[in-house]
Amino acid sequence: MDSIPTSTQIQDVTYRIHDTGALLARLYIPDEVSSSTKAIVSVHGGRWCDETRLTNAVIDQYLANLGIFVMAIDFRMPPLIRYPKSVADIHYAIGWLKENAPKYNLSPERVGGLGTSSGGHQLLLNMLCPNNPDWLDEPFLTHPTCDTSLAFGIACWPVTDPLARYHYALKNQMTKHIESHHAFWNDEAQMHLGSPHRIVESGEATHLPPLLLIQGTSDIILAPNMTSNFAKLYTQQGGEVTYKEFANQPHTFITKSPNEPASQEALEVIAQFIQSMNL
Fold it and tell me: Beta strand pairing status for 21-29 and 9-18?
């Protein structure tokens, strides 16, 4: 894969400060940014408990190379916090980018989001219910009424149903994933409450923006058909969804094997989806 052009700026900024320390974001700033430039907040996976803002660098760099502004974020994780504190950090990051959009010559209404795995789960929560008071763990902006809705979303191999994934992990003795569920969630009732699948199915979603779902058919980390079932449900509830399956590809295939043909194709699909948004 091509490296980042020298004309693309990379900046690490502090977007939020907690008692536990500063939260950083890596900004990928294309050389030419205008009011028509699309922007995304990029949310990493890691079973809710691991990884950093650099995890999705392959995706983030690719999109920046094509003129898309990317804000890749760190957020609090266990053992410092449990659900929904990290979701609130992501909500804050979305607000931060929209609030600071004029500084970077961006338009707030062209801000979307991308999440992978457990990051996809947390992005979806923010996308579906941007006004959920649980995401407001403290006043966060100079303008508290800042619109934190997303214009579009991309979720790659997302955990759309945490409770179903927990039962799947128990059945298959996935020790690391079971431990991560226990570290992040208080109990099964909370896993159900924080499920994007449940939120859409129950009609609780206040927003259903255009959504792209990326899924490999050889993913053994998620319960079978989790992503495809969510795609069907999203459509049934009136949302616009593009579902793309990649044959024989495992969980996190883009970031694990970025130069493989399937990964390159998936990156193109993501970029084309963002660029197709008529905002």
Answer: antiparallel
Q: Is the dihedral of CA 56, 277, 122, 92 positive or negative?
A: positive
Contacts of 118 (CB under 8 A, 6+ apart): 45, 46, 47, 48, 159
Return d(Cα 218, Cα 152) in angstroms, integer: 26
Residue 107: exposure state from Cβ atoms within 10 A (0-12, 13-18, ≥19): middle
Interacting residues of 227 by C-beta distance below 8 A, sequence separation 6+:
155, 157, 158, 160, 213, 215, 243
CB contact burial 248-260 (16+ within 10 A = b; e otherwise): ebebbbbbeebee
User: In 3-state terms, what secondary structure has residue 31?
Assistant: coil
Tokens 């792209």 correspond to what residue?
A: 212
Model pLDDT, residue 48: 98
Kindly tell me the burial class for residue 34, based on how many C-beta atoms sit within 10 Å of its own C-beta (0-12, 13-18, 19 or more): exposed
Mean pLDDT for all residues in the chain? 94
- Do 59 and 254 meet the contact criterion of CB atoms below 8 Å apart? yes
| Token code pair at residue 68 | 């898309």
3-state DSSP call for residue 26? strand
Global pTM reads 0.95
For residue 44, give the nearest of 70, 18, 11 by alpha carbon. Answer: 70
**203's tokens:** 């009609």
Q: Tens digit of pLDDT for each residue in 52-73? A: 999 999 999 999 999 999 999 9
| Residue 19: predicted pLDDT | 86
| DSSP character at residue 46 | S
Helical (H) or strand (E) element with 41: strand 39-43
Question: For the segment 194-235, what is each residue's pLDDT rounded down to a tens digit?
Answer: 999 999 999 999 999 999 999 999 999 999 999 999 999 999
